[in-house]
Design brief:
15 helices, seven-stranded mixed beta sheet, single chain
């Protein structure tokens, strides 16, 4: 969690300029009283911290109700793999909590004598967070700048890593209060890319109501629509939607996702191995790679190891679908962790860590690889991880590719660590890359293949 008192406040609004006091009428909230309501299991508070003729500051804070949280099932708040942060981040859950508190200002319907102020521009500063987003800082800036905002993004310190993946965003510009709130109610869910409710025509209607007058010409309109509406059948109904013409090149050349390339490379590597009867997929997630392993000739046993209950349920559904094909070998789904020894994993032909190690604190990897290479002792160990150097091609600065990554290594760093891990183990290691090859930065994914040395 970010070490800043401001980060505890989900949304802070500052309005400056002549007549700023009218904000209380636009919000329909008395500055003398603390606004506090219970909304959908959350406690919502609104308070004025500054109230003068030229400046008004308003804080909105949403606190999850602990009693409501424990009423939910354990699977809904599954913390065995990744901590569910959405109750504690500025997201669609947060916005649904504050919508009633800001309803008068959002709809632009104060008391009649204050209607003229609805279209009055103020110098507005809106600070919100923490935001958990897969977008890069530059992407965030490009969402707000077209409306005339200046954007400041802060990262705090975390007990897990030097820089927290959560961010505090401050946007400043000359806006009406209503327009500013409309921008936030559309763009905050775009940043978070998470909806805690079913997306239907009501979401479409909200997008069109709050997007009216600015979304039509926004240069990132396509991104906003896709992350807001998600599904093509809903997306195509939006008045903002513009169907892109399909070119001959697009129909002839299918874009292959990097994740698919990883799986394809791992599968092809395994097919070339002389011994591949037993395979362990460590940190298997939702079972996407495990399913593909089930179609490899010569494989007789697949152990799909995953600590998350939620991910294992997804994997189970995926295995059931694949079972309809006769040639499929169903993986055995097991709960397990890299941090604990499991005798069921000993002596297998192949072990795989596909995009797993970067989710673990780097100082714990030495012990993990010692256990794998000396206790489990597979014939072959395959490890893939991001190539940090290639982030430059993605126009990333100090960000990592995923909010949960504890580190990302250069090719030199990864190769040095792999060679260090085999110093006391009878293995040799080779390296290759996966994805488009850049002349300077290499390939986006790096792969190490640990092979047991032949006994002389």
């Amino acid at each position: 969690m970010i070490e800043s008192e401001v980060m505890k406040v989900h949304l802070a609004l500052t309005l400056k300029g002549n007549g700023a006091k009218v904000t209380s009428f636009l919000l329909a909230k008395n500055p003398e009283n603390l606004y506090e309501r219970s909304e959908k299991g959350n406690v919502v508070r609104l308070v004025y911290t500054t109230f003068s003729t030229e400046e008004v500051k308003v804080l909105l804070y949403v606190k999850p109700d602990p009693i409501e949280l424990v009423k939910n099932s354990a699977d809904f708040y599954d913390i065995t793999h990744y901590i569910n942060d959405r109750e504690f981040a500025t997201s669609s859950i947060f916005l649904s909590g504050i919508r009633k508190a800001l309803g008068t200002a959002l709809n632009g319907k104060p008391k009649e004598e204050y209607t003229k102020w609805v279209k009055h521009p103020f110098e507005i500063e809106a600070s919100f967070g923490p935001v958990a987003s897969d977008l890069r800082d530059q992407n965030m800036i490009e969402l707000f700048e077209p409306m005339g905002y200046r954007v400041k993004i802060e990262r705090g310190q975390s007990f897990i890593r030097d820089n927290s993946s959560a961010r505090l965003i401050t946007v400043t510009g000359v806006q009406t209060l209503q327009d500013c709130l409309k921008h936030l109610f559309i763009l905050i869910p775009v940043l978070d890319n998470y909806k805690h409710y079913f997306i239907d025509e009501r979401e479409l209607e909200k997008l069109e109501r709050y997007g009216e007058g600015w979304l039509e010409t926004h240069p990132q309109k396509e991104l906003i629509l896709k992350r807001s509406l998600r599904f093509q059948n809903i997306l195509a109904k939006s008045k903002f939607y513009e169907k892109e013409p399909v070119t001959d090149k697009q129909t002839e050349i299918a874009k292959v996702r990097l994740n698919d390339l990883r799986y394809q490379t791992i599968i092809e590597t395994i097919k070339q191995l002389p011994h591949k009867a037993s395979i362990v997929d460590l940190g298997a997630g939702e079972g996407k790679l495990s399913v593909q392993l089930g179609f490899v000739d010569g494989v007789k046993e697949i152990l799909s190891i995953e600590p998350s209950n939620h991910s294992r349920l997804k994997a189970m559904e995926r295995f059931e679908q694949a079972n309809q094909r006769r040639e499929f070998l169903e993986p055995k789904l097991l709960s397990g962790s890299l941090f604990y020894f499991d005798e069921r994993l000993m002596g297998k032909d192949v072990m795989i860590l596909c995009e797993v190690i970067e989710h673990i604190e780097a100082n714990r990897l030495d012990q993990i690889f010692q256990m794998i290479l000396t206790d489990y002792f597979p014939n072959v160990l395959i490890v893939t991880t991001p190539n940090k150097e290639y982030n430059t091609v993605y126009e990333m600065k100090d960000e990592m590719r995923h909010g949960d990554h504890r580190f990302e290594w250069t090719r030199k760093q990864f190769q040095q660590k792999c060679k260090q891990w085999i110093e006391a183990a009878p293995y040799e290691v080779t390296f290759t890359g996966i994805g488009e090859d850049h002349s300077i930065y290499g390939q986006p994914t790096q792969m190490a293949i640990f092979s047991k040395k032949a006994v002389k």
